[in-house]
UniProtKB/TrEMBL annotation:
UniProt-recorded name of the protein: Heme NO-binding domain-containing protein
Domain Heme NO-binding: 2-162
InterPro entries the UniProt entry points to: H-NOX_domain_sf, Heme_NO-bd, NO_sig/Golgi_transp_ligand-bd
Domain of life: Bacteria
Pfam families reported in the protein's UniProt record: HNOB
Protein source organism: Methylocystis echinoides
GO molecular function, one term: heme binding
Lineage of the species this protein comes from: Bacteria, Pseudomonadati, Pseudomonadota, Alphaproteobacteria, Hyphomicrobiales
Length: 185
């Protein structure tokens, strides 16, 4: 994954927990993340090791950290560094989600060696839809949940997110049922 991913993990940790914790995480992971370059691609293993070490050092589970990271990615990294790209993604949460299958095509213009996730939308109703998430990478379901929560905050649209199929449990891919007509959990 591109260095911007590991940089954003560092930003989340430093902003909320301080530099000392971030240094402890880099040491535990055996990754000198501060030396990675944002627009260079690196093996995925580096990001996974940092996430695992962050959960250990901060005393939370990996999924909880990935949810926080997803929210941070949209609300901080996305808004601060890719504001125009993010805002052009849709005029409402529903619009953004329907257009999400094409979103990383535009990201690829900035990062040509991107290995992006893929999405499709089905069962699109007035207040809900199903978002299908396809990836070659394991263990990122909670990151997706955090990203969706971040988008919900960004568009000031409360959502209920239900995982109705899970690749980790043998399904073909993850499917999120997203309902924006109901009060937020
Ligand atoms: C500011 C906007 C965004 C940018 C610049 C961006 C960029 C990226 C980059 C660079 C990666 C790493 C992939 C690689 O390096 O090969 C990535 C991965 C990913 N992105 Fe985005 N992204 C953005 C928004 C979103 C949104 C809104 C979603 C979904 C709601 C999303 C879902 C994901 C997921 C799930 C991955 C993990 C990779 C995988 O599943 O295989 N991204 N993105």
């Amino acid at each position: 994954m591109y260095g911007i991913v590991t940089k954003a993990i560092g930003d989340l940790v430093v902003t909320n927990h301080g530099v000392a914790q971030w240094e402890a995480i880099q040491e535990k992971a055996g990754v000198e993340a501060d030396f990675l370059v944002g627009n260079e691609p690196y093996p995925d293993d580096l990001a996974y090791r940092l996430v695992g070490a962050a959960a250990e050092v901060l005393g939370c589970d990996v999924d909880a950290f990935l949810i926080r990271f997803g929210e941070h990615w949209v609300l901080k990294t996305g808004m601060e560094s890719y504001g125009a790209l993010l805002k052009s993604g849709g005029v409402s949460l529903a619009d953004f989600l329907v257009k999400l299958p094409n979103f990383h095509t535009r990201v690829s213009l900035l990062y040509p060696q991107l290995t992006p996730p893929e999405f499709s939308c089905t069962d699109i109703g007035a207040h809900s839809m199903r978002l299908h998430y396809f990836t070659q990478r394991p263990g990122l379901t909670s990151f997706m949940i955090g990203l969706l929560r971040g988008l919900s905050t960004l568009y000031e649209t409360p959502v209920r997110i239900t995982l109705v199929a899970q690749k980790a449990k043998g399904d073909d891919h993850d499917i999120f049922e997203i309902d924006w007509g109901a009060p937020k959990e």
